[in-house]
Known about the structure:
8-stranded mixed beta sheet; disordered N terminus; 29% helix
Amino acid sequence: MGEKSEDLKDTSIQPKEITHPVNVLSTSPVSSNSLSGTSEKSLLESNDEITSGEDDGAPKLPSIEWQREEIQRLLDEDKINAKEGDKMYVIPKFWYDYFLNPDVDDTTLVEPIDISLICNDYEKFSLKDYNQCPYIAVPETVFNKFVEWYGLARNSQPTSTKLVWDDESESLITEYNRCFFRVQFLIAPDGRSRGMTNHHINNANYFTMSRLDTMAQSVQEALDFFQYVESNIDIVETPMKLWLVRDTDLDEKSAHLVNSYILTPIQFISLPKVTRIKPEIFKSTLRDLDFSAGTIIVEIKQHNKNYHWASNYFHYNKLSLSTGTIGLSNLGNTCYMNSALQCLVHIPQLKDYFIYNGYEKEINTDNPLGYQGNIAKAFHDLIQNLWGDSLLPLRPSFSPNNFKSMVGHCNSMFGGYMQQDSQEFLAFLLDSLHEDLNRIIKKPYVEKPSLPKDADVDNFQIIKDLAEKTWKSNLLRNDSIITDLFVGMYKSTLECPECNMVSVTFDPYNDITLPLPVNSVWHTKIRLFPQSLPPCIIEVELPKTATYTDLKNYVSRCVEIDAANLYGCEIFGHQFYNNFEMPDSNSQYLPLQELISESDIIIFYELTAGKDDVIVPILNSCVDPDFPSPSLFGIPFFLVFNPEDMNNPTLIRKRLQDMYVNLSGGFIPFNHNKLERPVTAEDFPLLSERYPDANLSNYSKIIQYATPEIEDGKQFFNIKTLDDYDRMDLSNISPQFWTPRPHINLRSAQNIIDHADNVTKDIYNYPHTPESKSCQGDSPECNVENETNFLSNIDINNSDEEEEEVEMEVDNLQTPDIVDVQHIKDDGNAESKTNESKSSSDALITPATFLVCEWLKGDKEEAFSSDKIINWENPGTIPNKELESIQMEKSSQKDKEITLDDCFSLFSKKEVLGLSDSWYCPNCKEHRQATKRIQLWNTPDIMLIHLKRFENTRSFSDKIDDVVNFPIADFDISDHVVYKENPDGFIYDLIAVDNHYGGLGGGHYTAYAKNCLDNKWYYFDDSRVSPAEPERSIAGSAYLLFYLRRGSLNKPGKLEEIIEESRSQHQAQIHDIHMHQEAIYEENETEEVDKQSSDEMDITEDEQDNGGRENSEQSDSDSAEFVDVSDLGQDENEAADIAAGGEKEENVEEENPTLELTPKKNIDATDNLPSPAESNHESDDDDVENLDPPTETKEEVTESKSGYSTECQEVGHFSIDDVESVEKEHAARRKMRVLSKVYSDDVLQADSTSEAEN
């Protein structure tokens, strides 16, 4: 049994090699749901016992050993009797191998045959990749047995091909690679087709035929498909012509023309070779015609047209020249793109470069910085639609969908439908076009040229040589049409402020961004808290890009205070909100425009602090009996203490009282010493009585600032302390300037003397010390008694719930700006650390302590009454004479217009680099705030000017709407160019303006452009185009200016050579098209209507319709090649005789019966094509016509070529996916009446008569 299995393997028909025909691979991918036929339906119906599984009632199958022997017998028998044209069925190879496997000894183990595993399309014989899904072919008798025994799997259909003779192997082989046909519909430019609305038809307009089939059968198959798609066309009554294009006649440029179902006249004429399908080749097989792949083009006769046939279109119609006044449709917030494109496409050199296809030879697909030429191709297609020759009358607008999709694919920024900046889009497009068209295939590594250290920067020749070297090095890496037209060079000069070293470099540019000389300053009022003067305020004005350091230096200069003694803070809610001195503050990098708004309260504190001094923040709170918690008021401030003062509560109070005198505007009652002499211990008699053993001389410094008595017993405020270690900078920098975090829980504050000894407490609270018995040391009685002071009577009662609420509020505070808590353990907290440090230290104030001065409501109102002219809420004004003079000068120039020259002058003005933009001086080896100046070394032919109307910073943006007066013509740029020896000249003329209306949140882009054909200006507002005056472009909306150098058109150079060469080639192509058209016209010149003179075309439209129709009918009746009536002059049997090579009877022409073809029911093919089974296609049995060669000829061939090879010479598959499901009834019955309708009966009769004579 094993030997028999081996024999079966040897005689099975297996693929020898995989071939991939070009005609198959060049088609568009289709899916496995393509046009499915039922050609093998009869086979399925004839097998009564086809099963997909084992049935209870099914007869028992013979043993698998017997089946294998039977298959071997059938293979041997078929090998002897095989002849060309026999059917071969394709099945999965793995199934066949499994059937032959000796280890398989039970028929129940064999599954049904699943043809769907190897077939994409049953009717079109589209097989899957052999390497992925191997297959073999078996004779029909073998296949019938397999189906009888095991059946077909669900959704599988028999797939058959034929045996054909192979001259190379001199044997019969299975025809896997069938002849491939596409179907195209040639329509007029204004014609309509149902295939236009079916986007999937381009993937389904193909079929395959055996090379043994005749051309007539192939044509009939094409007509079946055409009728199915164009179901609204009656192909019986409609005159039509057929053309054949072989794939072997296509070149690289024309191969894509046959991919789509719809074919236009310009595409038709552009095909290298088209052949009219004539009846002389009907009886020839595709093998006789040496045909492997191609396209059948169908065209129908046009009515009410001057050309009648689309193939004759260019004989009567010439290409319409575009005027360039076509708008661009807004696809959704794409006005930014439309305006920029209109400006670009109106540049004459750029337009001609793409119109005449000069770009094709320069596409760089290997540039990793480009987009494989896709942007350049998309831009070419766009310009062709706007400026190219057109078949139709000029349309008012064009929708740039394909261009928008390509740009969005290459750059996601422009992929959606959000509004974008036109200048950013233009910069991306120019850069993309440059890289796609870069003539440098492999960019070399090039170092940027620079001057040596000892070079004389004042020597112009040295600078010129450096510029030339820089330009040449740039061309080594960048050379394209963008470089030719748009690129010039900057000269950049940097000067170190320390060593005066000058650096000169050159950089290329393709647009010039000009600042506008408008009032772009930052303006506000700054408060100042001097150490010994009342608060004051000063008005400041700086550039918007100035920094906090610039502001501090400016204030220092105006008030004549050392900037090192000025500390800036932002105050909000009576507390410190922003500390600008912190190392990680926003002030270190944000410009003033973003850092400080006009309504912010900014205060500079004058603080003179030594290295060991401590700067203590101070807050002000008020106790109101009507409220449970104290609240902040006033302006916080700072005091500076040396280490000795930090343990002296009386000195701290005196310093605070002196500060409040200034802040309140001169509240005198704070003057506490009324003795008019230094205070001594004798002024405190109660202390000696209370502490007889104490040495009061040790408390002399505390007593020095104490107050023996207070008028009315008022101290106005109580001093309390809080610690905030989290806000302290733990670095070694001294003195430390810090601010407490906002939203402090004031109720947790402690009295400043809570941790002082009893003597200090009594000195501090002496006016309220009662007469009592003396205390020895630190007895408990003294401690309890001395804890009472004048504010202890203020009872702030709070419930436990309120305390919990406050504690919770503190816990939820925001994270402080400066946090460094490495000194705090994970389980500890700042408050516990504070208490421990207080108890273990003699100092009342630590570097992490800030003070809270707690006022009673009445005392606060008395001290800070509103009758004071100057206080911390109403500071005095410091005049700024420098600012006043600047404002007066601006006021006098308020009505002065801004010119483009002013913008260029501002552009070339020297500026000092900011701290964040500092330059590394190679001489000093440090970063320096150097002086920088940028100048134009030269200018390109197309000078693109970007008016910087948008001021974009990190968190703030603004638009400048001031009008810039720019010249329309005769703009002389020489005053702003360094290199004045340019032979090209310096005179420019305006050719386009890109406008922006609106603000930053939303706006609209339009364009003004000068048409190079009529030299008139037009206004482009998306799809709307209207004539315009160029002077109207001078407005606050002008955003991008396009200037053309006078005399640059037709300037000798590489670009001009490319344009001239491509223009000549384009004109030659147009000439070839017309010559090709005349050749086709001569072939078509069989109708009288095609011979009408030009004078006859002047008749009215009605006369033309009626007369043309009559002439057409008359000429068609007399035509030797085409018929336009239903009387074909032959019946179906006679047509069959002609196809079989017989002679036509002489009396046929006299009988002239009318043959009718019942067309398929009209099908709406505007979306998905329905199955033919639903189209109710009807035909009679007597419609079947045999178009094969004579039988005896075929028999002679088969007799001489008996036997076939077990290995096929060629195996093919259609790698086609994703096709629209288009099912139509298998055209088993060929309709010669349709062919007779296409080709005149006279031609068929003449053809048959000539054969008979031969």
